[in-house]
Design goal:
Shape: globular
Number of domains: 1
CATH superfamily: Hypothetical Protein Pfu-838710-001
Strand order of the largest sheet: 1-5-4-3-2-6-7-8
Number of strands: 11
Length: 216
Amino acid sequence: MPLDEEHKDFEFERRFFCRRLPEKLTREETPTLIVQSYYVHEDNYALRIRLQANDYGVPMSAHTDALHTLLESGDRFTAASMTAKGPSVGGTRYEAERAIDVGIAQELVLRGGSPIVKNRYGIWLDEDWWNLDAFGDKNAPLIVAEVERSGPVTDLTIPDFCLTEITDDARFSNDGLADRPFSHWKDTFDQELAEHGPHFLTNFGYNRTERPEDGH
């Protein structure tokens, strides 16, 4: 079986916690607005409906309510999908995604699930495409950077705006954030980071890392 066929329903990614967006890299970029809702978000299993409006971001803050944003921006959404996810293990996660009608997706999000809202920026760094997600509502001011490849993400150059790795921290998965928003445990995480310091996984080959400019 060809490699891409064997792995077509799996995603390979590494994810990192950031204090803020790297303005020098995102200043000229218009983000994609994403509103998504989780109908299953337990034990790292998830069923998700996602809507996205390309090249149309909105200001993200603790007051950026997902459903209000959906209603205000509904005619700008250009794509929608339904995705089933399995648990993440070592940067690998089962993810079967299917495109669905935008109007149907909007109605489903309005009718149920646990919604989140975020702006997504995309940038090239070295040979990798990075997504930088700035969350709103109860997940503000969380910033997560992630890099995805068609196979395991090994020998990665980790940029200095990535403070610590959260690849296998289920709290930071989007379905985890739908269940327990970042604002509910931000202080606990800050304390963990202050006590134990940043860490990066070492089972993905060679990491090249730089000390973050903003410290803890």
